[in-house]
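Narrative summary of target 7.
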Amino acid sequence: MEMISISKAKYEEMVRQIRLLKEIEKIDINLVRQFKNSLDDVKAGRILRVA
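Modeled conformation, tokenized:
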């Protein structure tokens, strides 16, 4: 295995990005799609009343 050197700032940025990606993986894409479709329905006027 090869060794490389990076700055501490670059390392911390990479760790931060990995944490963000792990959080994104937890998002339920189907739930996001349902929410988007619901907003589209509201925008189009297909929803008259919300309980």
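The first helix runs from residue 8 to 25.
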